[in-house]
Design goal:
The complex is a heterodimer. Chain A is of the alpha+beta class. Chain A has five helices and six strands, in the order ααβββββαβαα. Chain A has helices spanning about 1-10, 20-30, 85-90, 110-120, 125-149; strands spanning about 35, 40-45, 50-65, 75-80, 85, 100-110. In chain A, strands 1, 2, 3, 4, 5 and 6 form a six-stranded antiparallel β-sheet that branches. Chain B is mainly alpha-helical. The chains are: A alpha+beta, B mainly alpha.
Chain lengths: ~150, ~900
């Protein structure tokens, strides 16, 4: 139980879950699986099948859309509290980017079925996800407009 | 406590509000100063140069100017941002006042004086109107009650200063030059607005369907005013107010001009009078009005001005002398701006934001001139030698009418708030399906026709539910009519319903459809036709039971199990036994699936061994089938359900709670099963628990009494319990639920006091303690929500649902509106005032008075109390805090 509370204390800092009460967050904690990656590995490559999303609790992950997964050119860097990999779970399409671990990283993983269950249980989580996706789209706008020019 | 904190506490300021209140106070002070000197100088110069007998003409002229000015204002007020509108207004007013000064000083005659008097009448009205809209936009209803009186009070400070300036300098400077001072006091806020709102958009956000041009804005405002009872009754109140004010001004002017025939002495008297009155009003507004508003509410405070008006006219009707004149003047320059204006401005919070400016302007623009014209006509027609006491008696009668209008306005305010809430919140209003009434045969066939337009299963079931509910006698025929035209997948889903409703000739239709080639449809058809004893199907039993695939065999066996005669039952039973004991999961699942679709009481013994099957789907099916059977011992039920509820599979847990509900006839289901399922991490288990919660709940009032307290911290369960008890017909339920309300109120208070106690501990808070404080706050909020839920369960109207939804909203305007709506309740006003106190403690961190359980400074006691009296989750967090921080946090 105290392991879940430790995890919950981490999740209280994640904007995605800001709308949940602590007892609801406690239930969410029971659905998450801890994962860890050392610096330099790739969490997933562009085109992979998307099975899980991750909430970063420690470390940093760089997102690259370069077709060559080995090239370290990032369109964004994600840190503690950010989520990564949720797009493939929402639209059931292959991964749209490659995720590089920039420093030793710990995260909590959530699979597709559990994510859908969470969204059914707490629809307000969907708003949090939409906000996060919108922010990423906004951040990409200058890059996209630069390419068009 | 520092001096600053004391001052903030005295002014009811919350963290983060200081800067804004300071800015608005400065603007308010400048406005109050300007209006004070404007009024005193224009009154003095007018009464001495023209005399009170010319007042009617002035009223008529002010009315004529106000109409176009207010219409123009209404056309733009909801298009431009309030601060930008203020810039335009103050600029225009400066020009008018300076123009009046020029006319008074450079042009001979009295035209400038008349213009100055009219300018004051128009400017004061429009400035006050717009200032209340401007400051109202910064605050929600509850903030407004706390802060607006303070801001208005500062305008009194400005007014006092203006009075003192005129009192001291009234003899020294010419009255005309006071106009320049007023113009300067208008120009200063203009600069402040430009500085404070630099970079902000100058137009209001507008929705697509709303009016855009000034003419459309006016038209939309007029339409709204016609529909809103609050606007209509406010308009009547405004008309009566203007008439009363005009008559009072006439009476007071007539009295004082007898005592002070000289212009300079009159302006000095008015100045000092204004200063003293405003000083009293200042104290009232700054330290009392906000507390009175929070203590007695808007409705009671709305009756203060009508009461003092009645009093002042009553006294003058007895004797029109210096004393009664002073009372009338106090009412007009003290109570009116000090109490009536701030309170009246708050009533506009019950109107949609995009309409507040126009409603305000239209009331002012139409009713104010009408009132002035009516006053002018009355005073014109009044014979010169009419005793002032008689006029005052007429005013007394109109005051009574105004009192009545204010009472009506109070009612309209509550209704308007509720209207706004209902438009802001999504709510299921009643059972729409039942409100539709019944369907005749033709309509039922039309609804069934809609089934052909969908390939969606849930839509199909919705249409079928609608038909069965609203046209039970035609539902079977209507469904059968479209059956063959539906996709095979949908036919498969609809067939069991048709079989249950058994319209004439359904077996033949189903028999035809069975040969369309869909294996699932074929299995379902075999099963239902055999169960119905359809001869053509019975003839095929031998052949079907020889099928290679387990699914048709299972379907046929289950169908035969339901046949009452014939030897096929024995064969079916053997076939099912073979399938259920097969090592192949697909064979077991085929048999279980068919049995679950059409359970039979005899199947209990067959499926009992599968209640612990390793396959989750098989186990869930087995639970479902087993729960339809008779003859289970209570011990067997308890063991089976408890084991299934601890499964890691949501399917099994959901099947367990469904089975538990179904077994209500054979053994009393345990409330803990329901409680556990309602707390389940998986939403499907929670949904299953909510399908028939009533079978788990007590059947006697005595049991309810104990359970409501014992389960007081199990909020999910309690919500279900309260809903059920509220809709039951137990005679003592209201008293019981009222006791529950008191219990929750007490627990909310205790949890907030413990939270306050923990937050004031000298050591720095650890994450564990922060979490504990968060949980205490959340649970206190849930106790308050439970109180609202209890009230909603006893109130058949949707009012409480709106309030409850509003109070759980993160939108602070909606939250404040909901609280204000709740406080309009006549019977429960004290309860909601108490709730408001707790909500403020939760939302704004305002400390509550009182000692936490176990006393002050006893953290060990608090943690023990959390474990003893709190929910399981709170107890867990308290233990965690104890582990991490030691005995004394």
């Amino acid at each position: 139980m105290s392991l879940h509370i430790d995890r919950l204390l981490l999740l209280t800092r994640v904007p995605l879950f800001a709308c949940l009460r602590s007892d609801q967050l406690h239930r969410v904690c029971q659905l998450l699986e801890p994962v860890a990656w050392p610096k330099g590995v790739r969490v997933f490559d562009m085109g992979d099948l998307g099975l899980e999303m991750y909430i970063i609790t420690e470390g940093r992950i760089g997102i690259s859309v370069d077709p060559d997964p080995k090239r370290l050119v990032f369109i964004s860097e994600l840190g503690v509290g950010d989520s990564v990999g949720e797009m493939a779970l929402i639209d059931n399409q292959p991964r749209s980017a490659t995720a590089h671990v920039l420093e030793d990283t710990q995260a909590l993983a959530l699979d597709s079925e559990k994510l859908h269950g969470l969204l059914m249980s707490y629809p307000e989580l969907g708003i949090g996800m939409l906000q996060a996706l919108s922010q990423r789209l906004r951040a990409l706008n200058p890059i996209l407009s630069g390419k068009r020019e | 406590m520092s001096l600053r904190q004391r001052l903030l506490g005295l002014l009811l300021l919350r963290p983060g509000e200081g800067r804004l209140v300071l800015f608005l106070s400065v603007v308010s002070a400048l406005g109050g100063f300007g209006l004070s000197i404007g009024r005193a100088s224009s009154d003095a110069i007018f009464f001495t140069q023209y005399g009170a007998q010319h007042l009617p003409l002035m009223f008529a002229l002010i009315a004529l100017v106000l109409v176009p000015a207010s219409l123009a204002y209404a056309a733009f007020v909801d298009r431009l941002a309030p601060h930008r509108m203020f810039v335009h207004l103050t600029l225009a007013f400066c020009v008018v006042v300076v123009g009046a000064w020029l006319l008074m000083t450079l042009v001979e005659g009295k035209v400038g004086i008349a213009l100055y008097f009219i300018a004051y009448g128009v400017i004061s009205e429009m400035l006050l109107t717009h200032f209340s809209i401007y400051i109202g936009g910064f605050f929600d209803t509850q903030q407004g009650k706390r802060l607006l009186p303070t801001i208005w009070a500062v305008s009194r400070l400005g007014a006092i200063l203006g009075g003192v300036v005129l009192g001291v300098a009234g003899e020294a400077i010419s009255t005309q030059d006071v106009a320049l001072l007023w113009a300067l006091s208008l120009a200063l806020p203009l600069g402040l607005f430009l500085w404070y709102h630099r970079g902000e958009p100058i137009h209001c956000p507008r929705k697509r369907a709303q009016a855009s041009t000034p003419v459309q804005m006016l038209h939309e405002g007029m339409m709204f005013a016609r529909q809103s009872r609050l606007v209509r009754i406010s308009a009547l109140g405004m008309f009566l107010l203007v008439v009363l004010l005009s008559v009072q001004e006439y009476l007071v002017g007539s009295v004082f001009s007898k005592y002070y025939p000289d212009e300079h002495s009159l302006v000095a008297f008015f100045g000092w009078f204004s200063a003293i009155t405003n000083a009293c009003v200042l104290v009232l507004q700054m330290f009392l009005l906000n507390r009175l508003l929070r203590r007695f509410g808007l409705k009671v405070m709305n009756l203060v001005y009508p009461f003092t008006t009645l009093l002042s006219f009553g006294v003058m009707a007895l004797r029109a002398d210096f004393l009664s004149g002073s009372l009338g003047r106090i009412n007009a320059v003290g109570v009116l701006p000090g109490v009536r204006n701030p309170v009246a401005a708050m009533f506009f919070h019950a109107l949609p934001t995009y309409m507040q400016g126009r409603a305000h302007a239209l009331i002012g623009g139409v009713m104010l001139p009408l009132g002035l014209l009516a006053s002018a006509l009355f005073l014109w027609l009044l014979p010169q030698d009419t005793p002032l006491e008689w006029v005052a008696a007429g005013g007394f009668a109109v005051s009574l009418l105004m009192f009545w209008a204010k009472l009506r306005k109070n009612d309209a305010y509550g209704d308007s708030l509720l209207d706004m809430m209902s438009q802001s919140i999504f709510s299921h209003d009643g059972e729409a399906l039942e409100e539709l009434g019944g369907l005749d045969r033709e309509a039922a066939f039309r609804v069934a026709g809609l089934m052909q337009q969908t390939d969606n299963l849930s839509a199909l079931h919705s249409y079928a539910d609608l038909l069965e509910k609203l046209a039970p006698e035609h539902a079977g025929d209507a469904m059968l009519n479209v059956y063959l035209r539906l996709p095979l997948r949908l036919q498969d889903q609809l067939l069991p319903r048709i079989a249950r409703l058994a319209p004439a000739g359904w077996e033949q239709v189903a028999w035809t459809a069975m040969h369309a080639g869909d294996p699932h449809l074929a299995e379902t058809t075999m099963r239902v036709l055999l169960a119905a004893g359809f001869p053509a199907a019975l003839e095929q039993v031998e052949t079907w039971l020889e099928s290679d695939s387990p699914r048709p065999r299972a379907a046929v066996a289950v169908g035969c199990l339901h046949v009452e005669t014939g030897d096929c039952r024995a064969r079916a039973r053997t076939c099912l036994q073979n399938l259920l004991s097969s090592p192949q999961p697909e064979e077991r699942l085929a048999a279980l699936g068919a049995l679950a679709a059409m359970p039979h009481p005899d199947a209990g013994a067959l499926v009992r061994p599968l209640l612990a099957d390793e396959n989750d789907a098989a186990r869930a099916y087995a639970l479902d089938i087993w729960s339809h059977c008779q003859g289970c011992t209570p011990e067997e039920v308890r063991q089976t359900i408890a084991q299934a509820q601890s499964s890691t599979s949501w399917r099994v847990r959901a099947a367990a709670i469904r089975a538990a509900a179904r077994l209500a006839g054979s053994t009393r289901p345990e409330l803990d099963w329901l409680a556990q399922a309602l707390r389940d991490p998986d939403y499907r288990v929670r949904e299953a628990a909510l399908s028939h919660p009533e079978v788990f709940l007590p059947t006697s009032l005595g049991d309810w009494q104990d359970l409501l307290e014992q389960r007081g911290n199990d909020f999910e369960l309690l919500k279900v319990m309260v809903s059920h008890l509220g809709s039951s017909d137990f005679s003592g339920k209201s008293e019981l639920l009222q006791q529950a309300c008191d219990w929750h109120l007490l627990h909310a208070q205790d949890k907030l006091l413990v939270r306050d106690g923990l937050s004031q501990q000298p050591t720095a808070a650890s994450p564990a303690r922060n979490l504990l404080m968060q949980v205490l706050r959340e649970e206190a909020e849930r106790h308050l929500d439970m109180i609202l839920h209890i009230k909603a369960s006893l109130d058949p109207s949707p009012r409480m649902h709106y309030i409850r939804a509003g109070l759980s909203s993160r939108d602070h305007h909606l939250w404040a509106q909901a609280l204000e709506t709740a406080m309009q309740s006549k019977q429960e006003a004290s309860l909601y005032r108490e709730l408001a106190r707790f909500y403020e403690a939760i939302r704004h961190g305002v400390a509550l008075k009182g000692a936490p359980p176990g006393g002050k400074g006893a953290p060990e006691e608090w943690l023990a109390w959390c474990q003893r009296e709190g929910s399981a989750w709170l107890g867990e967090c308290a233990r965690y805090c104890l582990d991490r921080e030691g005995v004394s946090p």
